[in-house]
Amino acid sequence: MSRFVSAVRINNIGTPTDVVRLFHFTAAVTSRRSCCDKFSKIFGLRRRTFCGNYAKRMRQVLTLVICLIASHAGADAAADAMNAVAEQYAHLVLALGQHDPDYVDAFYGPAEWKTQAEKEKKSLDAIGAEAAELSATLAKTPDAAMSGDEMLKLRREYLQKQISPLAARVRMLKGEKLKFDDESRALYDAVAPTFPDSHFIQIIAQLEAKIPGKGPSRTGDSLWQRYEMWRKPFVIPKEKLDTVFQLAIKECRARTLAHVALPPNESFTVEYVTNKPWGGYNWFKGNFHSVIQVNTDLPIYIDRAVDLAAHEGYPGHHVYNSLLEKNLVRDRGWMEFSVYALFSPQSLVAEGTANFGRDVAFPNKNERMKFEKEVLFPAAGIDVSRADEYYAVQDLMKDLNYAVNEAARRLINGQIDENAAAHWLQKYAVMEPARAQQRVKFIQRYRSYVINYNLGEDMVRRYIENRSGADPEKRWSEFGKLLASPRLPSGLTTNGHE
Ligand SMILES: [Zn+2]
Known about the structure:
Layout: H1 2-7, H2 16-48, H3 54-97, E1 104-107, H4 111-120, H5 124-140, H6 150-173, H7 180-188, H8 197-210, H9 216-219, H10 223-231, H11 241-257, E2 267-273, E3 280-286, E4 289-295, H12 303-313, H13 317-330, E5 339-341, H14 346-361, H15 365-380, H16 387-399, H17 402-412, H18 418-428, H19 433-446, H20 451-468, H21 472-483, H22 489-494
Parallel strand pairs: 2-4
Antiparallel strand pairs: 1-5, 3-4
Helix pairs in contact: 2-3, 3-4, 3-5, 3-6, 5-6, 6-7, 8-16, 11-12, 11-15, 12-14, 14-20, 14-21, 17-18, 17-19, 18-19, 20-21
Bound molecules: zinc ion.
C-alpha cells in the first residue's frame, strides 16, 4: 500500500527517502504492467473462442483471474522481500565501513543511512551475526526469478555472493588470518593461478634480448636498471600530463558513446594527487559523477594515458558505476547497488571490466597505436619513431603482471617479508625500487585484491570473447550488458559458454 501513497509524491521528490520510495513504486508498476500484458494476451485468445458453454468459460476466466491475483501478490511479495534484504545488506556494508575506512568505496543512497551507521556504530560481532541472519533470510526469500527475467536471478545470486564476503571481512577485522588463496576465494569469489619462478624467467629472457645494455653478470646492472634507462624518453612531462590525459579521455569517451547509451548528465573531474599506494582511483559520487585521481608520485609513461583513461573513465569504472546507477538503482530501485563494498566479488568484475575496457575501446593494437602516435605522442612531445619498439616491450611487460600476485601470495602467507617482496618484484616484475615499494604498500593495504586486476581481466576477456568472437560490435554489446548487470565472478565462468 505504501507504494501507492508515495506515488502522490512523484512531483515532489526532495529527500532521499522519497527517491527510494519512487524507485520501489517504479519497480512495482513495471512488474505489474508485464503481468497485465500477459493477462490480456491470454484473455484475448480465450475471447476468440468465447462461445458455447458460457458457464464453463466463466469458471475458466475466474480461475485465471484468481491465479493472476495470486501470482501478482506472489511476485510483489518476492520483490518486497528481496528489496528488504537488499536494504539490510546496504546498511550492513555501511556499518562495516565504520570499522574499515577502505571498505565503502562508494555510497550514494539516502544520506540518513550513513548517519545511522555512524550513530549506531555496531560492533563487529553484531555485524557478523546480522550478516549470518541476513543470509538465512535470503535463502528463505521467495524466488521471483520464475518470471524469466534473468536480472532477478542475477540479483539473488549477487546478494548471496556479496553477504558472505562481508562476513569474511568481519572475521578478518577481528583478527582471523587467511592464506592468500583462501582470502581471495572468500572475498572475491575467485582464486588466481599460481606461476613458478621459471614462468617469469622465460619472459625475462625475451626482455633481456630487447633491452639494450649488458647483462647483470658483466656490468652489475640489473634488468630493471637498464629498462628504466631505456624507457626514460617515454615519460610524459609533468606539465603536459593533464593535456595528454584529457586527450586520451576524450577519445575513450567518444568511442564508448558510439556504442553504449550513457546518462546525458554523466560527468567526472580529474585530480592529480601524491603519496598514494595506487596509480589511479575512481571515486564514484552518484548522480553519474566520478572524481578520477591520478597519482603522480612516480613518472607516468605514455602508454599509461590510454590505460588510465579507459580503466578509470570510459568504458571502465566511471561507465560501470554510471550504468549500475541508471539501470539497477534508478530504474529498478535495487538499493544494494547504491553502495559499493570494496572487498567483495563485485571488485573483480569492476577491475576486470576496467582493464579489459581498453581492448573494447580499441579492438586491436594497431588502432590504439595509430591514435597514440598521431595524437598522444605529439601532445607529450615524445619522439614517435621508437613507438613500435616501445610497445613490443610493453606487451612482454604485461605478461609479467601475474608476478605481482606471486609477491602478494608469498607476503600475505608469511613466506617473505616486505623487503624480500620488493626485491622479488624488482627481479621478476622488472620494477625499479620505488615502484616495487609502492606495490608492496598496495599489497599490504589491499592484500589479495591484486588478483582482481589480472585474473579479473582474463575472466572478463574470456566471458566476452566466448559470446562475441572477434566481432567488435558484438563485443561492445556484450560488454555493455555485463557493465549494467549484477553478474559476479562465478557467473562469468558458469554462464560464459551459453
Ligand atoms: Zn580500478
